[in-house]
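Residues pack. Consider this:
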Amino acid sequence: MPTETPLMRRLRNGAESLSRNQRMLAKHVLGHYEGVAFSTVKELSTAAGVSEATVVRFAKALGFKGYPDLQREIRRVVRADMKGTERFKLTYAVKEPPKKGPLSAIIEREIDNISALQDTLDLKTLERAARMLREASEVMIVGTRSSAPLAHHMWFGLNKIEIKATRELAVTTETYDRLARMDAKSCVVVIGFPRYLRELVELLDFAKNRELKTLAITDSPYSALRGDLNLHAPVESAAYVASHCAPLILINGLMHEVSLLDKARTLKALNRFEALADSQAYFQTA
């Protein structure tokens, strides 16, 4: 396994709590994780020489609701280390062409991501994150490469309701300069998904060492990005590029929760924006 995650360590070292057939299945998963990431229950049970019921019980013994959740985590680990060439090969290694056109596989995967987000979202953490942002003296939002548009979107939304926020779309020495000047009431938001960028991990660690409040928006509890608070949105993709529909929905939901914490302040900010937009004719009328 390319990445040593808590799940992989459990498969390697947690044999005591598993049955004989489950231990045999764990060995198969460790040796053939790339195939397991995209196998059905029936395909996995046949390949491992166990029953389909054993596969389901195995997933639950590892703490998952069922096999789909276990497979989603294995798939995340595989994709976290995949190179662009490998992702691209995976997209065309399908048994049948899409029946509803070239977008069908991508749309179906997005629907799965959004459904998983709804099923797994930690509402208490979302509320705590919203309060952290509302009460912060300053918010730095960091997102680079493919997550840069998400960071820009979040910065725009928070600024519109007059929360002092800055965006960092590339990590440089100046980013560290700005972090070093932030006070203890500040908050740093880091947005990142597989493959996890080392520069984001190091920046998050630096912010935590300075005892700044930190929020990570990433794809899984097993992500390399971990803040004081963590929000997760799946990014399974049917293409070689990252899929960010679910993270965008999560960020929009988070900003909405922030806006509701002080409705009067939010309305004043929005009214000031609309007055400025009217005075400067920002928008073309129909």
Summary: The radius of gyration is 22 Å.
